Amino acid sequence: MSDLTLPMVRQRPLDPPDELGELRRQASMHHLTFADGHVGWLVTGYAAARAVLADPAFSNRPEHMHPPIPSRMQLMRREDLKVLPGMFLRTDPPEHTRYRKLLTGQFTVRRMKTLEPRIAEITEDRLDAMEAAGPPADLVRDFALPIPSLVICELLGVPYEDRSRFQEDARVLFNLESKAEDALAAVGSTLAYLHGLIRRKREEPGDDLLGGLVEGGELNDEELAGVGFLLLIAGHETTANMLGLGTYALLTNPGQLAAMRDDPGVVDNGVEELLRYLTIIHLGPIRVAERDVEIEGNLIRKGENVVLSLGTANRDPARFPGGDTLDVTRPAGGHLTFGHGIHQCLGQQLARAEMRIAYPALLRRLPGLRLAVRPEEVPMRSDMSIYGVHRLPVTW
Questions:
Q1: Do the domain assignments include residue 3?
Q2: What is the residue-wise DSSP string for 104-150?
Q3: How far is the C-alpha of 12 from the C-alpha of 322, rounded, in Å?
Q4: Cα(320)–Cα(275) distance, rounded to whole angstroms?
Q5: Does residue 6 form part of some domain?
Q6: What is the pLDDT of residue 1?
Q7: With 70 as the cut, is the pLDDT of residue 131 above it?
Q8: Distance (Å, rounded) from C-alpha 84 to C-alpha 76?
């Protein structure tokens, strides 16, 4: 059915659009008409999505990507879509391999373990501040956003007092309704800031990730700024939205909240279940076939775009029976929220560490935590490429 367009309207805030679930029940892959008329594919099944993410025949570079919905991509010039130095997320091997190799050692499970005491300290400081100010509070502003922002700033060596600049740029970049010129200006703003920071680190390297990369001498300033851009923006935005949306999901599912609060043995698995159930990647990822390739009997031709609905794939009953229900005791490993294959999220262990510490600390410190408004009054991030809540009014 080549007239299919991408469903984006959620009937319930925690569920993907109903049409996507219905499409998955019919088949794992469907022809999709993109906003500019390109006809490619939509993947809704778990096995097919995993196969696309793992296959080196698919490129992650943006030059030949088409917008699945009307967006600023249609208005951007092709030269504006070229990957800037260091933006390794949008590259393919061997370029991607070079950057990834330089960074992998910084994000191992072992390295993240050493950060846990500091993450716990930051979390407790935020809870102290919330208690001192008293209810009500906006959990996004007061808890979910500051924790990963502080952690990634300290890890990279970015002064936390500069956060308002890059956080505002991130809001523009992730907003699906931003104008093309505003998105480009946001990228330029953050890169200009990082170039200034890198110049200072060349004069006085610090004991941090960016300082170490500067001293390593394998990347030039443009590459360092590109790497820093990706880690800084992704490092706070994604986890912040998981903490906000995850708390909303627990507050509207009291039995699941009680399990996460009262049973320490549930927390690790509960984090994986929240990652699976919520899948905050609201749009995409998108891949481009670099040659003809067959997935589950479907021939994807060279140049065709493939949109993956990870939220729908992560609820595929063939992989997760009863997947439309939140169950923090469910063995939830194997989800695709962090991707799969060579582009699997570099910072996933850091995100897990932050969530494993922050959720139980919040729920145990404030056992009376509850929404300060009706659930339907919480503003959702339907207008953003990363889903979540814009604000989360709470009391206790």
A1: no
A2: HGGG-HHHHHHHHHHHHHHHHHHHHHHHHH-S-EEHIIIIITHHHHH
A3: 17
A4: 13
A5: no
A6: 44
A7: yes
A8: 15
Q: Is residue 75 scored above 70 in pLDDT?
A: no
Q: What is the mean pLDDT of residues 256-275?
A: 97
State residue 331's pLDDT score. Answer: 84
Angle at which helix 146-156 crosses helix 348-365, to 10 degrees, equals: 140
Residue 219's domain is classified under what CATH number?
1.10.630.10
Band (80; pLDDT cuts 50, 70, 90): low
Distances (CA, A) of 124 to 129, 154, 273, 366: 9, 16, 24, 12
Q: What's the total number of domains in the chain?
A: 1
Express the helix, strand and coil content of the chain in percent, nearest 5 each. 55, 10, 35
What tokens were used for 213? 């990369």
Q: Is the residue at 109 inside a domain?
A: yes
Q: What confidence score (pLDDT) does residue 369 get?
A: 98
**Residue 308: both structure tokens together:** 């993956």
Residue 200 burial (CB count, 10 A)? 14
CB atoms within 10 A of CB 330: 18
Are 34 and 299 contacting, i.e. CB atoms less than 8 angstroms apart? Answer: no
- Both tokens of 234, joined, read 């992704």
CA quadruple 217, 219, 222, 225: dihedral sign? negative
71 located within any domain: yes
The total of other beta-carbon atoms located within 10 Å of residue 373's CB is 14
Number of alpha helices (DSSP H) and beta strands (DSSP E) in the chain:
14, 10
- List of E strands, the chain: 29-33, 39-43, 58-59, 137-138, 286-289, 293-295, 298-300, 305-308, 370-371, 393-395
In this structure, what are the phi and psi dihedrals at residue 35, rounded to the nearest 5 degrees?
-60, -30
Tokens 């998105």 belong to residue: 183
Average pLDDT over residues 271-278: 97
Residue range(s) defining the domain that contains residue 169: 18-395
Structure confidence by residue, pLDDT tens digits, 324-378: 999 999 887 899 999 999 999 999 999 999 999 999 999 999 999 999 999 999 9
Q: Would the pLDDT of 3 be above 90?
A: no
Residue of 138, 197, 120, 135 lying closest to 358 (CA atoms): 120
Indicate the length of the chain as a whole number: 396
Taking alpha carbons only, the member of 170, 108, 130 closest to residue 353 is 108
